């Protein structure tokens, strides 16, 4: 089976919460893959995972409809088992040597990631030291990756679509935009008038009265992902005020016309930590 070159890079395919103790079928660039935990799901994530082609080579059954036994995914049709490295065993022919397409798989940052086995590419780490994770989710969009990415990297929609972060629709002509490119990245710095925000949210974010909202994002292409640094500056003094947000968005190509968004949202550990601690104490 020929795999597309984009599979050489790490792509998130499930959140950690979506993968339990039974296999899950995912699609990546039109390829169906069975993803499974090689041991019971750990309480705090970080377990070992495996991924093989979802179609059993024996009779074509879907491995994701099977179960996991002794670290292998077991076909529901004839009981053939497949290890994370792609080696297989047949109950009726225990001495036989069988293989299927395997994928490198790991669990990190609250998500399950896969790529073509054996490709020497770095894992896409994002720097969140000193930040508190406040949200993590996956959303499916019925549109090609290029279209979805194009919508995410322009700011005109923020005044109408975003409830909190974005620019005043009536003052978009005041937004400053600066672009920097390298062979691997595109960076865009946007600065302009913050759209009106409810008082409670202004207090939570702690931004100054004369605030300009800054959306400073960098997009990379192996895999396709964007990291958004978002904060406020006083338009009169140029000094930063309020809390700093960092959002990492990965654009996973499910099909040519379907894209999964994996969004990781972080905030500076200041007022957010206090709010989280208060909520935790109140729930006890």
Task: Produce a short descriptive summary.
With 284 residues, this protein is mainly beta. It has two domains: 112 residues, 3-layer Sandwich (Rieske Iron-sulfur Protein); 152 residues, Naphthalene 1,2-dioxygenase Alpha Subunit, Chain A, domain 1, CATH 3.90.380.10.
Tally of individual domains? 2
CATH class of the largest domain: Alpha Beta
Q: Remind me, CATH topology of the largest domain?
A: Naphthalene 1,2-dioxygenase Alpha Subunit, Chain A, domain 1
Specify the oligomeric state: single chain
Q: Residue share in helices?
A: 10-25%
Q: Tell me what the CATH architecture of the largest domain is.
A: Alpha-Beta Complex
Q: What is the rounded distance between the termini?
A: 54 Å
Mean pLDDT: 88
Based on DSSP secondary structure assignment, what is the total number of beta strands? 18
Structural class: mainly beta
Spans of 5+ residues with little confidence (pLDDT < 50)? 276-284
Query: Helix tally?
Result: 4
| Portion in strands | over 45%
* Main beta sheet: 7 strands, antiparallel
Q: What would the principal axes of the Cα set say about the shape?
A: elongated
Strand order of the largest sheet: 12-18-17-16-15-14-13
């Amino acid at each position: 089976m020929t795999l597309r070159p984009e599979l050489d890079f790490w792509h998130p395919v499930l959140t950690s919460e979506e993968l339990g103790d039974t296999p899950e079928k995912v699609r990546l660039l039109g390829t169906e893959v069975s993803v499974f935990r090689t041991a019971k799901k750990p309480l705090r994530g970080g377990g070992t995972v495996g991924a093989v082609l979802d179609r059993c080579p024996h009779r074509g059954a879907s491995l994701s409809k099977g179960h996991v036994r002794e670290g292998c995914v077991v076909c529901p049709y004839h009981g053939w088992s497949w290890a994370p490295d792609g080696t297989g065993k047949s109950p009726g022919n225990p001495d036989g040597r069988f293989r299927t397409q395997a994928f490198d798989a790991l669990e990190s940052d609250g998500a399950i990631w896969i790529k073509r086995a054996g490709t020497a590419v770095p894992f896409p780490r994002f720097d969140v030291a000193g930040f508190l994770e406040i949200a993590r989710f996956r959303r499916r969009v019925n549109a090609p990756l290029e279209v979805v990415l194009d919508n995410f990297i322009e700011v005109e929609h923020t005044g109408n679509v975003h409830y909190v972060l974005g620019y005043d629709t009536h003052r978009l002509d005041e937004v400053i935009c600066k672009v920097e490119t390298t062979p691997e990245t595109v960076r865009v710095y946007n600065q302009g008038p913050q759209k009106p925000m409810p008082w409670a949210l202004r207090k939570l974010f702690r931004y100054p009265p004369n605030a300009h909202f800054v959306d400073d994002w960098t997009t990379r292409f192996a895999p396709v992902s964007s990291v958004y640094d978002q904060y406020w500056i006083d338009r009169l003094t140029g000094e930063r005020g309020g809390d700093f947000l960092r959002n990492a968005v990965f654009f996973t190509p499910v099909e040519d016309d379907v894209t999964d968004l994996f969004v990781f949202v972080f905030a500076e550990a200041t007022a957010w930590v206090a709010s989280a601690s208060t909520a935790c104490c109140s729930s006890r």
